[in-house]
Specification:
Blueprint (H helix, E strand, L loop, with lengths): L4 E7 L4 E4 L5 E12 L2 E10 H10 L5 E13 L5 E13 L24
Parallel strand pairs: 4-6
Antiparallel strand pairs: 1-3, 1-5, 2-3, 3-4, 5-6
GO molecular function: single-stranded DNA binding
Protein name: Single-strand DNA-binding protein
Keywords: DNA-binding
């Protein structure tokens, strides 16, 4: 069972979009979640496939967003050991408490299947 994680925050970096050599679209950005001014959490958000393409065309630094995904905690050792929190996004949307947005439906090719997009 995969438990989903929801986080509300602000896009804190310019979204970075790339397509791998295998043709996989990937968009990543940093997210700042601050329930209170001194209670800040940072996440790296990654989106794949169609979500990556839509996120790259829709998000800018400073946008208020809601992200639903799988939380992954990564630890590393060495000279400067640390921990990072990453969210593998399943859904990303603008937080309408922070403004208005206009939805433009993505065109889906006839051979696209929902299973390929996960």
């Amino acid at each position: 069972m995969d438990a989903s994680f929801t986080v509300r925050g602000v896009v804190a970096s310019r979204p970075r979009h790339l397509v791998t050599a295998e043709g996989l679209a990937v968009t990543t950005f940093r997210l700042l979640s601050a329930a209170a001014s001194r209670d800040r959490s940072w996440f790296t958000v990654s989106a794949l496939r169609r979500l990556a393409v839509s996120a790259a065309g829709s998000l800018e630094a400073g946008d208020p967003v809601l992200v639903v995904g799988r939380l992954v905690i990564r630890e590393w050792t060495g000279e400067q050991p640390g921990v990072t929190a990453e969210v593998e996004a399943m859904a990303i949307g603008h937080d309408l408490a922070g403004g208005r947005t206009t939805f433009v439906r993505a065109r889906v090719s006839p051979d696209a299947s929902p299973a390929k997009d996960r």
